[in-house]
Structure formats: C-alpha cells, structure tokens
Inverse folding.
C-alpha cells in the first residue's frame, strides 16, 4: 500500500509456512499461511500471538482483515503499540463484542467495550487509530468504540488468538496520511 509504514498480505509466503518477518509465541499454537481465495494467515490451536514491526512506530493506524470463528470462547485480536512492558489489544470476544484494553507487565486493564454482532466465516476490516492519547476502533469503517489512554505511544503490531481464525491485509499507516475511515471499505472478496 502506497504511503504505508509496513504491510503484509501473505502472498509472497509459501502455503503451509510461517509468514516471513513475523515472530510467533504460544503453547500448542500454530500460525501459518493458507490458501483461501488468496493467501491468508491462519491460526489453529491454543492461545498464541504473532508480532512484527518496530519499537519506533508511533502515531499510526493498524488495519487488518479478519475472518472470526465466533465461538463463545473466542478471543481474536489486534495488538498495537507493543513495547517491552506491554501493549494495547483490541479483541473480538465470542463474536458478539469488541473489547479494548492494555497489558502492562502481565496485568490486563479493560479500557472500553461495545457490542458488535460478527457473522461466522465473514470477512471484516478491523482498524485501530493511535494518534496519541486517544484510541479509536472501527469495524468496516464504522466507529465502534474509543478510549482515552496514553500508557503506550509507540511499538510494533501483532495478532492474537485462542481459536481458529484467519487474518489478511495487515496495514500500518501513519495517521497523517490516512484519516479515520468515513465509509465501509471492502475487506475482502
């Protein structure tokens, strides 16, 4: 994507392989590239994370296409402003809500939540905007929740999951080049 700080659509990765440039963690958790119309990043197994990026990234948006399972136990999410002592997370919980929070030295604090009805096996574009001091979360271009917090202002990005899910079209862009979405973008065919 032109003007992006970083992006990955997994098209250059071999099917069945771990994506290049990402680091995964977790127990009994597998992240690999699968064919699903185009190539996507798939998670199976238990809770795991996969991260990429730079500690110097700041004042950015993170946009990801996600195909949630909508299981009742589901926690699929985006990590952003990931630093040594923690990060922000935006979770799809049970396919029925979005929950925004932060992890600081292993302790979770919820910042905001909002209902949102996700449909299983449908693609959504989930985006977060981190201009400093305020975090805004969007689904398909519609603002779903906001929270004021300035614990983290810079850091890499990642994806989190505890169930089967697919991700695609990861884009990190400077806020100055991309304003918050004003209409519903097409997440994926």
């Amino acid at each position: 994507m032109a003007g992006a700080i970083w992006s990955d659509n997994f098209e250059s990765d071999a099917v069945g392989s771990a994506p290049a440039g990402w680091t995964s963690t977790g127990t009994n958790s597998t992240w690999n590239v699968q064919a699903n119309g185009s190539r996507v990043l798939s998670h199976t197994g238990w809770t795991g994370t996969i991260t990429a990026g730079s500690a110097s990234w700041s004042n950015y948006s993170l946009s990801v296409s996600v195909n949630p399972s909508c299981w009742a136990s589901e926690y699929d999410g985006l990590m952003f402003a990931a630093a040594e002592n923690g990060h922000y997370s935006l979770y799809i919980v049970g396919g029925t809500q979005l929950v925004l929070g932060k992890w600081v030295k292993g302790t979770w604090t919820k910042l905001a939540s909002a209902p949102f009805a996700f449909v299983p096996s449908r693609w959504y574009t989930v985006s977060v905007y981190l201009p400093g001091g305020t975090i805004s979360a969007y689904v398909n271009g519609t603002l779903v929740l906001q929270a004021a917090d300035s614990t983290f202002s810079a850091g890499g990005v990642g994806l989190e999951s505890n169930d089967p899910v697919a991700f695609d079209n990861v884009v990190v862009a400077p806020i100055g080049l991309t304003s918050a979405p004003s209409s519903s973008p097409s997440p994926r065919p």
About this structure: Residues 137 and 143 are 6 Å apart (CA to CA). The two ends are 18 Å apart (CA to CA).
